[in-house]
Design brief:
single chain; 328 residues; alpha/beta; Rossmann fold; L-2-Hydroxyisocaproate Dehydrogenase, Chain A, domain 2; six-stranded parallel beta sheet; three-stranded antiparallel beta sheet; 11 helices; 14 strands; binds nicotinamide-adenine-dinucleotide; binds (2S)-2-hydroxybutanedioic acid
């Protein structure tokens, strides 16, 4: 057994937490030989429910679960953490405007960014799942000046997985045969799932599909609006799949993307592909040992360009809104 890894999860008593914690504790992230110390953050009124979840974690007797600590103070919970999965966020409630939502989440991610800056381990990596994920990540990284911005990412892996699954179903191929899927931009309905660089068994996916109308009118909207379709069907937003994607993203970040493949991660733009520098924008990235690099030199045609720019424009609007609120 190696040294335990300290993993913080925020919003741990929520829906995603109820799946994520058990996957983390059972070794799905770090494998069977690395013990996990869970550090769970919740708001005070949810601590009692969280105690119940901890009882259930105990009852699983996971050999890889070293210990669990819970609390409502980010400075205590984040102390020495190597990985922080920021899942907890304020959902939009009736009568709430977009600006109200950004402001409510701004307060959460400002405080958590500052706490991580002060108390997290030197090697910390931070993944943001809570919505609006890209802009929440931007707020957190802006409030953590001592943590390199490359240590922050927002989750678009769920969109990436959704895109793979839709493509597999349409073409009758196996998920394992699909590589080089890309989600560009925001984790929102403006995201651009890109089939023009994806491959099925080594062949270009758009050529295999050979149906631009399906790509534009079915594939892209199905992937981009999948979150809303799940809310409509389930009466609650995606949880197990979001937890699974959160694990996939963190695992590949820490352990490396598969040879010959890449993954989608929303990271701070360095201006690649003409996207404004500083936005937290989803790109195709390869990862190695906790670092990522944006895949360069992909050819972008006019169709892809307009989709990539539209989702960037939405992120610029979100950035301007949180800048006006003094959050970044
Ligand atoms: P949920 O409402 O069931 O749980 C959220 C939890 O966060 C609650 O228990 C709440 O008490 C807690 N919380 C709120 N403020 C907090 C704070 N300041 N510190 C710590 N905890 C806090 O929601 P959920 O279904 O688990 O989803 C969590 C978030 O993930 C939502 O914002 C949701 O929209 C988002 N989400 C993102 C993706 C993605 O792909 N990026 C997918 C699904 C859901
Ligand atoms: C999802 O993608 O399932 C979540 O982000 C929920 C949503 O609001 O779309």
């Amino acid at each position: 057994m190696t040294h335990p890894v300290k993993v913080a999860v925020t919003g741990a008593a929520g829906q995603i937490g109820y799946s994520l914690l058990f996957r983390l504790a059972s070794g799905d992230l770090l494998g069977p030989d690395t013990p996990v110390q869970l550090r769970l953050l919740e708001i005070t009124p949810a601590l009692k429910a969280l105690e119940g979840v901890v009882m259930e974690l105990d009852d699983c007797a996971f050999p890889t679960l070293h210990s669990v600590e819970i609390g409502d103070d980010p400075r205590e919970v984040f102390d020495g953490v190597n990985l922080a999965l920021l899942v907890g966020a304020r959902p939009r409630t009736k009568g709430m405007e977009r600006g109200d939502l950004l402001e409510a989440n701004g307060a959460i991610f400002t405080a958590q960014g500052k706490a991580l800056n002060d108390v997290a381990a030197d090697d910390v990596r931070i993944g943001v799942t809570g919505n609006p994920a890209n802009t929440n990540a931007l707020i957190a990284l802006s409030n953590a000046p001592d943590i390199p911005a490359e240590r922050f990412s927002a989750l678009t892996r769920l969109d990436h997985n959704r895109a793979i699954s839709q493509l597999a179903a349409r073409t009758g191929s196996a998920v394992a045969d699909i590589r080089r899927m890309t989600i560009w931009g925001n984790h929102s309905a403006t995201q651009y799932p890109d089939l023009f660089h994806a491959e099925i068994g080594g062949r270009n996916a758009a050529e295999v599909v050979d149906d631009q109308a399906w790509i534009e009118d079915t594939f892209i909207p199905t992937v981009a609006k999948r979150g809303a379709a799940i809310i409509e069907a389930r009466g609650a937003s995606s949880a197990a799949s979001a937890a699974s994607a959160t694990i996939d993203a963190a695992r590949d970040w820490l352990q490396g993307s598969p040879e010959g493949d890449w993954v989608s991660m929303a990271v701070r733009s360095d201006g690649s592909y003409g996207i404004p520098e500083g936005l937290v924008y989803s790109y195709p990235v390869t990862t190695h040992d906790g670092d990522w690099s944006i895949v360069q030199d992909l050819e972008i045609d006019d169709f892809s360009r307009s989709r990539m720019d539209a989702t960037a424009a939405e992120l610029v609007e979100e950035r301007d809104a949180v800048t006006a609120l003094g959050l970044v």
